[in-house]
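Here comes an entry:

___
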Amino acid sequence: MASGDNKTEEFTPKCWTHSSELLPLFCRDCDRVLCSDCVTGDHVGHKLCKVSEVAVYHKNGFEKILECDKTMSRLEEILHHSQQEQKDLAEHAGNLICNVLDREMEVGQRLKLWSKKMVEDVTLLKERHDMSLKEDEYLASAVLERKTRKPVTESDSLSVTYLHSEIKRLLTSKTEIAPQKKISEKLRFEAGPPVENLDTGFGKLKQFKVHCQENSSDEINEGDHSNTLEDGDNLNEGKTLHDVFVYQPCGKGPIDDIAVFDEHKIFVVSQGTLYQFIANRKDVELDPTVIAKGVYQIAPVLSSRDLLFITYNGKEIKRLSNKSAITTFTLKRQNYDYSNEQYLALNSDIEAYICVLWSKEEKGYQMQMFISLLDEYGVNLMNISCVPKSSHWKHRPRIIATCEPSSHVIVYDGRLEAVGTTPKRIHLSAYAGSVGVNPTSQFAALDLTIDSKGNILLAEPNDNAIHLLDKSLKFKRLLLTEEDGLTGPRSVTLDPSGYLWVGCSDGQIRVFNYQYLMCTDRKSRYLHSA
């Protein structure tokens, strides 16, 4: 909210939340001066007016405060307390960081010991199995070689006795030769249960409140902008929290879609061409490899490291396997005639290998739209029908699975909808209309992604911003804007390491630490970069 500097001779009213010195409005409900960003945030629907309409009232009240000695003394105490608390906060934050790094070293050492033991166990088991197989090989080859030699003589009595007794044992134990794949089933690595929140095992940050008379300790909740970095969101080597990396892999062509497996396997779509490149923090302009042409949309399947993409005409889905082979992904569905179908969008799914949004023209209907959940072989696991508001879109839809069971979010021209993927379409909620930087613009989000807590991020080129919504599709704030270097964002994705990739209309890809964005406000980020 709006505030001022401590030095009165340099005092300039400003909004501490949004780092703005333009404060044209006043909220009568909250009794606060607002900037333009405040209006689209916590004060939506409040009673607003111009500052000039309440200036006289506040001028009289302010003069009374200046004349009150008790109030002045109290303000001096607050000033001294604030200055001392800032010093203590800086020192304590440094100690907390040391605690985190010490814990990281401790956990790292334990992880190395576990890894060393596992490698030793695998090596020992391999040697034991290998010795048994070599013994079988030695015996079998010796007997087969004897068949081609001269008859057995008395001098061979020891060899013959040894071979005869051992071969009987071998033949008895090998009555049936197991298929090759069975050897891998004798020794497998079974990972422990998935740990989505490592805070429980490693440690968590308790939020302490500064400028609060009562000593309280609250865990940071998911709705707070001061969310801390989770242990699962480790930074890539060489990166710091506030680093922003910029790549321009395809010249000036717009980045229409992004899929990131890791820094060594990144795919982008620009003007219908699918490229692959390796991130290089030293170079902005890269030399990507052309994978395919006539590509509309891509979707990574992290579990298998496959990449699926829709051809530009919407008639085929292709699969780029981890071995770099491109094949047609055939959908095996029954009881439907799909001669006129068109694939509109696809994405990975928590309940299936992939979810596909597709449409079909039917008699009596402008268009019928379906969501299909498929396994890795293209077998249909679920097929539901949904009726779009329009059959003619300026931009093709996008679809993504939420963190809730049987729930997906679809974005198409001017509308974002959450629907339940049950045998019948259930409309859950919707988000439409611009509430960001340019309220007069037409809402036309081009891409979306979702974080581990269900928050939805929308790439909105008209607002030149990334909208942040909660899981109920309620607008929370603008996470990134033009001030962060965005130029018409067209694509957005979160990689497995916790980094937010934003593809823009000018061909640039900007990479941000997502948790750093969530635990800071725009003011602190801009002051740090200044």
DSSP finds eight helices and 31 strands in the chain. The longest helix spans residues 69-146. The chain has a mean pLDDT of 75.
